Each structure stands twice: as C-alpha cells, then as structure tokens.
Fold these 2 entries.
Entry 1:
Amino acid sequence: SIDISKLRDLSGAVTLDQGYKNTGACKSEITFLDGEEGILHYRGYSIEELAEKAHFLEVCYLLIFGELPNAAQLLEFETHIRRYTLVNEEMKSIIDGFPKTAHPMGVLSALTSALIAFNPSAVNPENPDELYEAVCKLMGKFLVIASWTYRKSQGFPLNYYDNTMGYVENFMQLMFKLPTQPYKANPVIVQALDQLFILHADHEQNCSTSTVRMVGSSHAGLFASISAGVSALWGPLHGGANQAVLEMLEEIYANGGDADKYLDKAKDKNDPFRLMGFGHRVYKNFDPRAKIIKAAADEVLKTLGYDDPILGIAKKLEAAALTDEYFISRKLYPNVDFYSGIIYRALGIPTDMFTVMFAIGRLPGWIAQWKEMRLNKEPIGRPRQIYTGYPLRSFVGMDKR
Ligand code: ACO
C-alpha cells in the first residue's frame, strides 16, 4: 500500500498563470504596446506614423537592426535579399509531394522547416555578418515559398522573383503572373499590401512570437524557430482569425445578413461560437491597427471600384457589437484581423492565403525577437506545472486490467 502523505505537494512553489495573462517572459526593446490606451510603437515609432510614411522593408530593417535604415543601407538590404530569392530546385519536389488540397499554412511551415536542410547553419546571432546573411536569406526565400503554396494549390507553374520589382510588388507577380505575359501590379494594391505588412510586422509577445522565442531558447536554429512560429500563427484564435473572419462574414451574408443572430450566438455561453475578429488578449480598447485598416479598407475598395457587400456586413456587425452590453462590459473591440480579410479579398488574395499574408508581415518581428532573445542570452524556456494526476500507484499486470 502507498502512503500518499509522503508525496510532496509542490504546488505552493509554483505560480500558476495559464495563458500567461500576467506573466512577463522577457525584457524587450522592440515593441511597446499599451492595451488600455490602444497604443503601439515599433522601436519608439508610432504605428500610425510608420503605416503612413514608411515602406515595409524599412520597417523590417528597423525591427531587426534597431534603427531606420538610411538610403544606402536600405538599398543594400533590398539588394542582398534579392540575391537570396532563388529557392533550391529540390524544394520543388517537396512541394510536389503535397496534395493540392493542403492548407497553404501547413505547406509554408513544412517548407520553412525544409529550408534548414539546404541551409544547415544554426546561425550565430553574435556574428553580425552571419546574421545579416541569414536574415536576407530567410526574407528572400520565405516570400517566394509563401507564393508557391498558392501556386501549388491552384496547380499553376511556379513563378520566380523578378529583380526589376520591389519586394512587395514581387509578391503580387509571384502569386499572379501568367506564363509568357508581362505583369504589372496595380500601385494601389502594392501600397495597401505594404501597409498591411507593416501593421502585422510585430506585436510583442503574442502566441507565435513567444513560440519563436521558446523554440529558439533551446538554441534551435533561426529557420527552425521561424517554422514553429508559422505553425503557431495558423490557429484561428491567432493569425488564422483573418480567414475565419471572412468565412464568418460570408456565412452571415449567405444567411440573409442577420448580424444580430450571430451576436446572440457569440453571447450564448452554451454555444462555442465566437465573433471572429473581436477581442484581444492585450487590447482592452480599439486595436490601433484595426483603425488604420478600417480606413484603408474603405479607401482601397473605393479606388478599385470594388463594391463588396461583405464590408457592409462587417460594418453592421461592428456597430451592433460596439453598442451591445456583452461586448462593452468585456471590452471586446474589433482586432487587426476584422478588416484585413476584406482588403485581401479586394486585392484578389484567396481566403486560405490570408494567414500566409500575415506570416509574411510578421516574419521581421519573429526574426527581431529571436535575435534579441539570443543576444540577451535568455535561458531555455521551461515552465513548471501543478501536477493534478494520480499519486504513486502500483503497476497492474495485463491479466488484472
Ligand atoms: N466573441 C464572443 N465572446 C468573446 C470573444 C469573442 N470573439 N472574445 C472573448 N469573448 C468573451 C469570452 O467568452 C469571455 O467571456 P466570460 O468572461 O463571460 O467568460 C471574455 O470575453 C474574455 O475572453 P477570454 O477568452 O478570457 O480572452 P482571451 O484574452 O483569453 O482571448 C482572444 C483573446 C483569443 C483573442 C479572444 O478574444 C478570441 O477568441 N477572439 C476571437 C478570435 C480572434 O479574433 N483572434 C485574433 C486575435 S488578434 C491576433 O492574433 C492577430
């Protein structure tokens, strides 16, 4: 017989904070976020100013290297990224191994991981040259393979990076260029995408970024850590929400546009349905990125002459939620993903690519956070637990079970 009283109760020695709602896991100089006031800064610059005045590659440089680049640094960064946009031909046979129906996020995660096989160095963050090469390599190849996940799902031939175009415009031609035809992206679309990528570029210790830091804390390499971040982003409570929002809006529209019915479902505690694109772990006020995106959605749709009834549904739902006691009392506001899908749709991006778009935008943030974590020499991440299982018991032989 077992004396349970002899088992030590370790629970008093451990702080339990499921979901890390009040636990800081690191110190960081990258992103400042005040959720009560709805404020977001990258390296001290407000998100509003960056979204209005900067380009995505400038913001990538700012996040990863700490300061805005001057013209020469930016040119060199862009040129260096371009140098690495050729993806090993053997990666294509990996892509061919996936069924056409595979979700692009699953393919992106696998391909990012597969890049390690062709770039085996774990990347020493303390060697600035090695780090710079790895950053440019990852930024170049990630964009190309992200577009390939779509080309594959459509059964289209794969496109290659066009050295005459910028980084964001290249994404459009990688996605949509038809064989033998020249491609010129609509500048309105390129500008909107550039802004969306900036808005998604970092968001301090969110789920995918924490995953990147956690995986990296074991000194797994940069590419392996980023691949883990892609998987974490995929979930519908995180980056996957942008796809879920659009599917929800389409469903509401298809069912006659009754926003109130869906609000009631979201409020019903016996119904697992949540209003996708609403609520945020940290923002208890309007998400500043959502404000910018909302204005951009109106502008882009107007400029492209795209009359989308889904935008009408979104506005109706937002207005209803913002005046509903359930949402007011819980401080549930639209988040960045509530409007991003509407713009992606207007730009011709297919729904199951929305989270891939998020990943392209978030890549510099993941890299910056990985670098900071390693340079700060953070210890391996290893949370404790409170054990709630059996005390020690005797093994039961097969004949007695
Ligand atoms: N619809 C209905 N009720 C909600 C929603 C929602 N979208 N979000 C939160 N609530 C309710 C919860 O049921 C809970 O109610 P209760 O106090 O009566 O139990 C209360 O608000 C607090 O919610 P929590 O789940 O404790 O909040 P948490 O911080 O853990 O979750 C999250 C944040 C995951 C973002 C949540 O709001 C959610 O699921 N939203 C929908 C998915 C979404 O849009 N995700 C994208 C987030 S932004 C991003 O990752 C880029």
Entry 2:
Amino acid sequence: GLATGEHSYKYRMLEGLVVPPYVTPARLNLSRTIATQPADVCHCSFPKSGSTWLANILYLVLHDGHEPGQGAPLRSHLHWMESAWTYPRTREQVDALPSPRIFKSHMPHHMALAGGPRQSPCRFIYIARNPKDVCVSYYHFESGSAWSGGYDGTWEHWLRLFMDGRVQRGDWLDHVLSWWEVRGEENMLFLRYEDLKRDFRGQLARIAAHVGVQLSPKAVDRVVAASSFSHMRAAPFSNHKHIADFQGFFRKGEVGSWRDRFTVAQTDAFDRLYTERMADSGLTFTFE
Ligand code: A3P
C-alpha cells in the first residue's frame, strides 16, 4: 500500500495495524501459537528503540560474555517469528532449536509472541526509547534502504505519519503503553534505551537477573566491551553487514539526535501531543 500524499511507503494492514509487507497473516499466526518454555527469552520493542543492542546483550549474557569466534551472525540467533523476511523458520524447526531460544518481536502486546507474558512462560523484555529519537532514527532507517518501507518523502511528512500512528507498527505510544501495562508480570522486564546509555552496568544486572544468569565480574566486562556502539558497528558478529551492507542499525547511537531534525515548532507540537497522552501513564523519558 501507499501512504496518502505524494510519498511512497510500503506497508500492509494486519488486524488494523500498519506492518511491513513481510509480516504476513501466516507468520503472525505462527508467532502467536508457537510453544514457548520458561528458559526462552523474547525481546520486544517498537522499531529503532535499541532492539539490536538488546539482542546482542542477551546473546552475550547467555554465552558468558563471549561472541562466537566464527560462524553465524547475531541475526541468525534471533527467532523473529512474525517476519517472513530472511526468517523462513517453520514451527518444527523452531520447536527443535536448542534452549534457551532468543525470540524477537516488534508487535504490540495484544499481538505478542505466544500471547505475551500473561499467557506464556517465556521471559519477556521490552525496550522503549524516547519518541523523538525513535522518530528520527526511523526516518533515516526507512529512507535508507530498499528492503524497509522504502520511504521517499520529506522529514516533515514522516513526522506527520509518525504522530498519526501511520508508520509501520502503528502508533508509538499505543505500542509502548500496551507493554508498560504488563510491566508488573513476573516474567516481564521493561527497559529504557536512555537508562542503558546512562547506567549500562546497572541495567545489565537487571537483564542478567531476569534471564536467570549470574555473570562473573570478568564476564560482565566482556559484555560491556562487546556491547559498545563502536564495537557492535565493527564486529562481523553484530554489525548486520550481511544484510545488504545496511548501516541503518548503527547510525549514531546517542540520546538527543532528534535535535538535528526537529524544528522548534515541530518540537512544540510533538511535546504537546505526547505530554498530554502520557500524562496518566506514569511512564517518562529523558530526551537529552
Ligand atoms: P540511531 O539511528 O539513533 O543511531 P534497532 O536496533 O531497534 O533498530 O535500533 C537502532 C538504534 O539503536 C539506532 O539509533 C542505533 O544506532 C542504536 N544502537 C545500536 N547499537 C547501539 C549501541 N551499542 N549503543 C547505543 N545505541 C545503539
């Protein structure tokens, strides 16, 4: 489909949600009905919120802080069930994978893997990021590559799509709040990108505890080193170079890069909308 206006943007409507064309009804059904176990981990997020960073951390935590010396890249260790793009796994293949499995999902809670934390014993981790940085990161990502939405419009139009909830995965706040509401479940951990930037070791301890791993001080140091932006961007294991040499996953890695794009008027309109809509949630973000 095409978004309204003169700009093209590829997407599909699935149960009322804007999703990438490679999220098909059959894959969503498989994702919802896959059998999960307590040892499994599923990291969830709205796009561009730090999911690759979190995936790398999870892999390292589950492997004593070691990247594999050679062989399959990070992506092939993540089971992104809702996606038909480069993830042709069948139910039988997924059932046969060794434990613990790392699942990835960009779905809102009502479309969650295996029914989400209230219905599945899997450990869920959601990562959220301030919406201005998400919006800018997503703009670069969707404009930068043929395999994503292939967006070819202006920043201004993109901002309108984002604020109207018409980008892939729909409305950012609906998505985040749907997971924020279940944050109290025992098998659920809610993280923020800005907390990882500010206090990596503290957040790493929460992640390790959530997946039931006790890391030695040396293993912690290995995770810290192998999860830095510069390391991940360079390392063949994590840099996603095998995906059409696409660098949209490692652009800046900073808090506050929205300032490069948002005008004062855009900031005012955006802040007004989100402050109002978030007021009662108790969820807050830092933007600098
Ligand atoms: P920017 O575009 O603002 O740089 P996702 O993996 O969910 O698609 O999110 C991508 C965003 O996470 C990008 O944001 C990317 O640079 C950032 N990122 C990736 N690895 C990171 C790391 N190790 N530390 C901080 N940010 C990271």
